[in-house]
Backbone:
């Protein structure tokens, strides 16, 4: 998104095995040997640990909890952590099989005074464990940082931390050089820069011993995947386990129409017949607007678009979709917000109730 701010449920046997899987010790990415029991990529499909096609049915969770970007989250960072169990239980009941978790580099050293001084990395471990305990993949998504050696070190930390967990995927950077405070006019739409940075992320992840899938975001807020197979810009992964993530919002459009469908087809949807493509972010609210263009953030648009997405997944090889987001203060929340009932930490309506956006997201998923 431009502003700051999920087919298979695995058995208890697989979950019990998570703690015993060992990734190889390596010095160079080229020497990595794949884990036999992890997720793989074959052609245009994602395969689960049993070798069956896996369709992502996802939702972002714990949004804001691990994001340090200078914003005051208004207590929603704490609320997302506090009510995580209720949300995950509800999402599992709705068929969700993947949870996307945004993280930022400062969690390496930060502690949560509101949670007994616990370190944020330890809290991330807890969130991942809760996600995995419900048979869901945890997609840990680095975000809101410009490319740097510090950021590469952080990605290496994540990769090393989760290298033995077959139910963790990584995104090295959400909307690289575009999102929020990372926006660069010279880099946001630059394929050459994108290739250089993403290849370094991939090498860093593989050198740390992580062998699971890597979900890659692209240029233009990840709206554009047109050049990912161009030999000039094609990325290199020694394990061939890359998944590509597309993003889409309604912005100034009141409705979803044929022209927009043709645009999405050309930008990313048609690519799903060749490589795995997941719509890894779609929401109902992309802010007030940009470049003097006010955004409508129309729910009518969202309804039409989700119908398109559903057909893309069922009939055209799309590999899934991830909604944005479980709980927040704006129009992207899928759970109704009760606000500040007591104190300075908000809470969702309990028992949990879907917003209209939440109803649209789930009602347009015949495969859920």
Residues:
């Amino acid at each position: 998104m431009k502003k700051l701010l999920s087919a298979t449920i695995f058995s208890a046997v697989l979950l019990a095995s998570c703690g015993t899987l060992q990734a190889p010790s390596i010095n160079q990415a080229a020497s990595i040997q794949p884990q036999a029991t992890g997720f793989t990529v074959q052609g245009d499909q994602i395969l689960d640990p049993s070798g069956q096609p896996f369709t992502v049915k996802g939702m972002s969770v714990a949004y804001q909890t691990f994001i340090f970007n200078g914003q005051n989250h208004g207590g929603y960072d704490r609320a997302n952590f506090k009510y995580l169990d209720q949300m995950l239980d509800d999402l599992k009941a709705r068929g969700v099989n993947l949870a996307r978790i945004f993280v930022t580099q400062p969690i390496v050293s930060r502690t949560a005074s509101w949670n007994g001084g616990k370190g944020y990395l330890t809290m991330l471990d807890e969130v991942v464990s809760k996600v995995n305990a419900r048979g869901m993949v945890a997609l840990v998504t680095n975000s809101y940082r410009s490319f740097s050696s510090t950021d590469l070190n952080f990605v290496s930390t994540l990769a090393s931390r989760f290298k033995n967990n077959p139910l963790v995927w990584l995104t090295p950077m959400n909307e690289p050089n575009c999102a929020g405070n990372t926006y660069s006019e010279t880099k946001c739409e630059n394929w050459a820069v994108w290739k250089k940075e993403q290849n370094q992320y991939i090498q860093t992840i593989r050198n740390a011993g992580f062998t699971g899938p890597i979900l890659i975001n692209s240029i233009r807020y990840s709206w554009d995947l047109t050049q990912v197979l161009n030999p000039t810009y094609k990325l290199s992964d020694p394990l061939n386990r890359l998944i590509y993530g597309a993003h889409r919002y309604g912005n100034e459009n009141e409705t979803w129409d044929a022209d927009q469908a043709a645009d999405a087809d050309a930008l990313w949807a048609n690519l799903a017949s060749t490589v795995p493509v997941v719509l890894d972010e779609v929401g109902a609210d992309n802010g007030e607007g940009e470049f003097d263009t006010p955004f409508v953030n129309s729910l009518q648009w969202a309804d039409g678009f989700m119908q398109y997405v559903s057909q893309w997944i069922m009939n055209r090889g799309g590999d899934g979709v991830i909604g944005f987001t479980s709980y927040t203060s704006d129009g992207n929340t899928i759970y109704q917000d009760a606000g500040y009932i007591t104190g300075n930490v908000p809470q969702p309506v309990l028992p949990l109730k879907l917003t209209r956006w939440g109803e649209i997201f789930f009602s347009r998923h015949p495969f859920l």
